[in-house]
Amino acid sequence: MTDRVALALGAILIVLILLDLLANGGGVLVFLARKILDLSEYLIFWR
């Protein structure tokens, strides 16, 4: 991955996070964080 691609992906992520914070108060981030925690607990169980 080149630096230009990494910077573009990082900029897109930051913009999406800011849009979520402005539009939903961060609701999508909380939802995704909970789902990632559930997935990690599931994977730890089957390890």
Structural key phrases:
mainly alpha; flat; single chain; 47 residues; 2 helices
Describe it for me?
The chain is mainly alpha-helical and 47 residues long. The protein has one domain. 87% of the residues lie in helices and 0% in strands. It has two helices and no strands. The longest helix is centred in the N-terminal third of the chain and has 22 residues.
Write down the Rg.
15 Å
Note the overall shape. flat
Q: Please state the average pLDDT score.
A: 94
Percent of sequence in beta strands: under 5%
Distance between the termini: 31 Å
Provide the helix percentage: over 70%
Number of discrete domains? 1
- By oligomeric state, this entry counts as single chain
Largest sheet: none
Q: Supply the helix-strand structural class.
A: mainly alpha
The total of helices stands at: 2
Low-pLDDT stretches are none
Show the helix and strand layout.
Layout: H1 3-24, H2 27-45
Brief summary:
The chain has helices spanning 3-24, 27-45. The protein is mostly helical.
